Amino acid sequence: MEEMQSRLSNFLSRRSQSRDNGNKESITVPEWAPVVDITEDDQEYLISAELPEIKKDEIKLSPDRNRTPFSTERKRETEEKGKKYHRIERAYGTFIRTFALPDNADAEKVNAEFKDGLLKVHIGKREAARPKMIEVS
What we know:
The protein is mostly beta strands and 137 residues long. It contains one helix and nine strands; from the N terminus they run H-E-E-E-E-E-E-E-E-E. A hairpin with a 2-residue loop joins strand 8 and strand 9.
């Protein structure tokens, strides 16, 4: 059911691009949502999000014990007089991405770094969740 809801949400968030004469083009461009990778190791979860053309102070990150939402806005360039636009495919606007935290994630151990358009959100794991190594004697 969740997969169907996700597919439906993705479908509804796409908008068609059209030429001036009204003919539909063969591509669709979604409203802006940054691409994200989520990885895990023994110590933490890592969310890496591409945020091109965004400044560090424009990113809002507000984790709680169950989820990690972050948001920002990519603003459209203002039109310049004398400049003629032939195609605008880059998406703009406000977005909010929210990720549910696993049970073993520690919302108190969250830190973030932003460099070269890449946001990295580190979410530590609770001590009990980490595998213990027991020495066999």
